[in-house]
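does this look right to u?? MRU version
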Amino acid sequence: MKLEAISFKNDTLKIIDQTLLPKQIKIITLASLNKSIEAIKKLRVRGAPAIGIIAAYSIFLEAKLLTEKGSLSQKSFNIICKRVALSRPTAVNLFFAINKMKSAYSNFNERTSNILLEELKKCALSIHAEDRKSCEKIGYFGTKIFKEYNNVITHCNAGILATGGNGTALSVLYETFKINKKLHVYVDETRPLGQGARLTYFELSQNNVPCTLLSDNAAGSLFSQNLIDAVVVGADRIALNGDFANKIGTFPLAVLAKHFNIPFYVAAPDSTFDMNAENSRDIPIEMRSKEEVVSFWGIGNSDNYNVYNPAFDITPAEFVTAIITNLGVIEKPDKNKILNILQP
Ligand code: MRU
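got this back:
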């Protein structure tokens, strides 16, 4: 795989600025907490696992900076975590990472600041490494199912650019392509920000996986002509009953899949499950600016426009054939099956 969404070397955090893709592959350094938060908010880095990883590294780097200034304390550490938590609300991986960093802090806060910083760094590195491993496992489990399918549709970007590894939904497809050269991926463009058109099409092409781009509203036409064998998408937050949030436009795909009796798969690591969310009512949905919708059409002044722009939608569990996780596959997910796999 040629791309790397996130790199962390010599205490320097770098990302590909995804707002510029595919025209330009520009690596930027997130040299301060403000820069990291801005990058998450503006979707320079995006995708649930990726923003969790960025959160962890950024908390470590800010703690290091405050240590150098002699002002790291439980209070200032909590403020850092709170600021990161306010960057985006839906992807639970962000909060998973923040909580892990908080535990690392409280486990070691009696010791010297050097040990504390080492522990924070170790924690951030392990969140990144674990995600890389999860992507591999998801690919491994997913291939067993997907080797049967030739024409698959996906939505948004759940690939290399969204994770610390080869992706979730796209890891399944990359691994499947190794054994089934007939695999072909239909890529929803993913309005309004074009994660499919700009990111998924780009990374699949870079890795030589045959793909076709379509506008989101063309999906029904493919299903109705029997041209789709399966759907695979990522997730931002999965509730204990199997309801999940993913990029706006995921739910209509699930409805189409159910109508045409086509299997619908979700691929996500264990860090995407929210143990505190019983069902979709416990999942907060991010609302984004009206400019994101109107600017595509060259409408300069959006003052007179009423716009509905949720970043995510909810797909109820009853639409899901299976969730492919790093721990195994959960068919027809429900609370028992999810808890069995997460807490065996
Ligand atoms: O708004 P985005 O681009 O961060 O939304 C990303 C998605 O919806 C992805 O499908 C999800 O985070 C899974 S990424 C492995």
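The first strand starts at residue 6 and ends at 9. idk if thats expected tbh
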